[in-house]
Amino acid sequence: MPNLYPALERQEVVVHSPRHVRSFAELSNEEVEAVAGTWHQRSEEAWVSGFSYVHAAINEGRLAGASLAHSHSQLIWLRDVPPVVREEQALLDGSPCALCDLLAAERADGARVIAERDGVLMSAAYAGRAPYELLIAGEHWGGQPGFDGGVALVRALELMADGLRRIRTIEGPIPVNVWLHNSGHWHLEVLPRLTQFAGLELGAGIYVNVLPPEEAARALREAG
Ligand SMILES: [Zn+2]
Ligand SMILES: [Zn+2]
Which ligand lies nearest to the CA atom of residue 139 in the structure? Predict the structure, then answer.
């Protein structure tokens, strides 16, 4: 449905379930699949309508900017590719692709790997900005912006729900931001908001993370 209070030209809200659940972690696999299908379908509609990019994001908890408790995502239709995605595009478009290199290194090392489903990998983000930051990515998709027929996106969102459940097992319900970067080699970034970003993080772009990703991955593997 359209967002009642859009910040930008066009913003849609995807309601994840008719049940009053507060977290993506509480969704059934059928509901996760429906969310993936909706993201895919609405993004195609946006591209057909002349928008260049759809920013898909989930905010959970007031500290992460959520104004509604009921689990939902936002689809923000943009005329231009946003700056963060444009910066990544240079690294993730074509070959060699930095994310392909990173995934190969993560698989070889294994210390930050948490789980894998059908070629989609969930790892504790290398040099993550905050405790339990996750990176979820599948095979390189070299076509037009899209989701590889949609199956890999379903697996990625299932892994994301699984990752959130593992974090909740350790830390309880936590505020979290999730977004899809869908240009070049698409991926999901999951940023739990367990710590406050302060002057060093926001002003200098230097993130102090008190939990090394290798320790986060070990704890999350055990919490599975
Ligand atoms: Zn790649
Ligand atoms: Zn990214």
Answer: 1
Cα(103) to ligand 1 centroid in Å equals 8
Reply yes or no on whether the pLDDT at 209 is more than 90: yes
147 vs 44: CA distance, rounded Å: 10
Give me the pLDDT at residue 197, please.
Answer: 93
Is the full-model pTM beyond 0.70? yes
- Ligand 1 centroid–CA 186 distance in Å is 8
pLDDT band for position 142 (cuts 50, 70, 90): low
Give the distance (Å) from ligand 2 centre to CA of residue 145: 14
What distance in angstroms lies between residue 130's CA and the mean position of ligand 2's atoms?
A: 15
Give the mean pLDDT of 114-127: 96
Ligand 2 centre to CA of 168 (Å) is 23
Per the CB < 8 A criterion, the answer to whether 56 and 1 are in contact is no
Task: Output the CA 68–ligand 1 centroid distance in Å.
Answer: 35
Neighbours of 45 (CB within 10 A): 14
Give strand pairing partners of 121: 116, 137
Among the bound ligands, the one closest to the CA of 94: 1
Task: Specify the fold of 10-80+94-222.
Answer: HIT family, subunit A (3.30.428)
User: Would you state the pLDDT for residue 92?
Assistant: 86
d(Cα 222, Cα 151) in Å, to the nearest integer?
27
